Amino acid sequence: MFVTYEEDPNKHVRKIDEFLGCSLSGDEIEQVVWKCSHEMLSKLDVNKDEDRVHTRGIKVSSYFRTGVVGDGKKLLSPDRDDGKD
């Protein structure tokens, strides 16, 4: 399961909690959400290493940009109509 930060993280943690049958309290869910937040994860040294590569050949640092909704649009090419699909 891959969760983006543009979605409601509390909802996803509750869904995972239910699937695993853990029965976390509201406070525990909040702790999980905080520890998995962009702010926390992007500050970890292991995630700052520009040379570290994920097993699929993707640089780990590429998973962390600014943490701002819609920022990914900067990385996309503008739409073009060249008649090719």
Strand pairing plus helix content: what structural class?
Answer: mainly alpha
Q: In percent terms, what proportion of residues is strand?
A: under 5%
Succession of helices and strands: HHHH
Low-confidence stretches: none
Describe the overall structure.
With 85 residues, the chain is an all-alpha fold. Helix content is 38%, strand content 0%. It is built from four helices and no strands. Helix 1 packs across helix 2. The longest helix has 12 residues. The chain is globular, with a radius of gyration of 17 Å. It starts with 8 loop residues before the first helix and ends in a 37-residue tail after the last helix.
Notable traits:
85 residues, 0% strand, 38% helix, mainly alpha
Give a brief rundown of this model.
Helices cover 38% and strands 0% of the residues. The protein has 85 residues and is mainly α.
Secondary structure layout:
Blueprint: H1 9-20, H2 26-35, H3 38-43, H4 45-48
Helix pairs in contact: 1-2
